[in-house]
Amino acid sequence: MSKTTIDGRELVRGIAISKAWVLEENQSVFKTRLNLEAVDTRIERFQFALRETQIELMKIRNYTEDRVGTPQAAIFDAHMMVIDDPVFVQAIESRIQSGIDPVEAMDDWRKSSQTKLSHMNDYLKVRSADVDDITIRIARHLVGTRTFDATQVNEEIIFVAEKLTPSFIASLNPEFVKGIIVAEASPFAHATMLAQAMGIPLMQVDRPDFLRIKHGASVIIDTEASLVIVNPDADDIRAFKSRRDAYIQSLETLQSLKDKETRTQDNVDINLMMNVNELSALNHYEEVGAEGIGLVRSEFLFNGDKNLSNEETQVDLYRSILKSVHENNVVTIRILDYGGDKRFIHDDEVEDNPFLGTRGTRYLFKHIDLLLTQLRALFRASVHGNLQILFPFVTTVDELKDILRIVDQVKTELKEEAHPFDNDVKIGVMIETPGAALMAGEFAEMCDFLSVGTNDLSQYMFAADRTNARVAKYNDAANPAMLKIIKHVLEQGKNADTPVCVCGDVASNTLMIPILVGLGVRHLSMDHTHILKSRQQISRLSVTSVEKLAQHAVECTGGEQVRLLVKDFINHL
Ligand code: PEP
Ligand code: MG
Q1: Whole-number average pLDDT of the chain
Q2: What is the rounded CA–CA span in Å between residue 351 and residue 342?
């Protein structure tokens, strides 16, 4: 058997060797037809499939809750909500009544839901795996075939699959499943998040390479080296073992930083906070020693839930977030950021240039009830922790004046209704456009904190849509233009004694952290997976040296030059 070396991309970090178990493509169920004549019989079969799916999902949900955690189990509550949704049931039944086979009706619904999702941003696009998960499960019950039961695996293996559904991952036993290789996956997918929570290394490889991995072959998966080796030879196995030892050592070193302060060599404290896109991320809060939550993207917590308008549901949700962190740690919940590429609910208004349209705070002013309900719920939950409220995509000072007026109105109402709330909840704005950045001084005087959203700031700085791969090279956060504007915001924040956080993707980029700290950033917020590594990197920096580095970086002419400068700096640490 010849050896094959394949390049892979890490989705969940880890290193393992085992036998490949190649899973068959599970969408083939949609090719089956039931050939049932009577409409009533077809509807009955569909109803039966729904009931069976419901029972199965309940088991998976409880199994996940016991073995992985409550936030992860909530993924399956969302699946059950689809089955309970009368709009979904009616859509399928009316297709069945019009003469379409139930399996085909499921497949049609699956495809049209996925087409809708494909126009959404990365976080929502990946929900198509959840759509697969539900529809495949229902279709299997329609057809009467069994879902592959991974709980029965009792030998050490590495799963190899085209793509994976969350319920499949939830059924794995990490004692036997040493790794997973997939052709299609995303860091934001529920399946990835579950694998992360269960500590199963996950690697994505290109489709042609994926087809080269045969069932039963010996496989090394090594996210540290971004490699998959099929049929490794004795040298590979020796090298693997020493890399595995080094990997375990590096994990132990990182883990030892969990309860340490984030402090530079010259004793400057940096506040390392966590971004939350999914409630399940909160499970990692303690484990990485996060020092607060710098950004909860509230728009992702509802997943199009029709109960969004319900104030009580929101109070419960925010209370549970506030209670899941240490009392003194700050929790920054961002007001719904709809518009742009996030159009999950209320997506009736389609604009030609959504990124330049009714986005963020503009959207909320148009849908004022959404804003008022969320603000009321946030203030009511505020008594349970240290809440900060952050407004997205604020572009003018007048908008901020309106925001502050609405906040006051909500507080007055709550007082009149005798609802307790924290009167000192801090109000902040995201700096996401060059216009807002240039007015940072005025914003800083009027509100309690600023948060630089570098993902958006750079797309608007360089007029390069963040979702368009063709212009990705222009959208470069290391470009000195970005560094200059961040520096300006930091200076304005300092003058007004208003803290400035950076919460876009650059906050966790190892080439950007030295520059950001050098420019004066003292609050960073990032995905939990980056916190320990960032703490380790910061502990090796000294503010005096990164200030000089940042000064040089600002004087560069392009992003590439900045990166070379930082790489050289890091090599000499
Ligand atoms: C940003 O724009 O950098 C940001 C943090 O917000 P989002 O990525 O949700 O737009
Ligand atoms: Mg943004």
Answers
A1: 91
A2: 12
Is residue 190 annotated as a catalytic residue, yes or no? yes
Residues 6+ apart with CB under 8 A from 363: 336, 338, 339
Residue 254 burial (CB count, 10 A):
15
| Residue whose CA lies nearest to ligand 1 atom number 6 | 453
Domains of the chain, start order: 4-23+149-233 (3.50.30.10), 26-143 (1.10.274.10), 266-571 (3.20.20.60)
Segment 526-567, tens digit of pLDDT: 989 899 999 999 999 999 999 999 999 999 999 999 999 999
Q: Out of 275, 337, 486, 530, give the residue to mutate to test ligand 1, the one with the largest number of ligand atoms within 8 Å of its CB.
A: 337
Q: Evaluate if pTM is beyond 0.85.
A: no
How many Å lie between the centroid of ligand 2 and the Cα of residue 335? 12
Residues β-bridged to residue 296 = 276, 333
Summarize pLDDT for 97-147 with one digit per residue, the tens: 999 999 999 999 898 888 877 777 666 666 778 888 889 889 989 988 877
Write down the catalytic residue from 79, 190, 523, 530. 190
Alpha helices in 119-150 (DSSP H): 122-125, 128-143
Q: What is the distance in A from the centroid of ligand 2 to the CA of 392?
A: 7
523 among known catalytic residues: no
Q: How many CB atoms lie within 10 A of CB 356?
A: 14
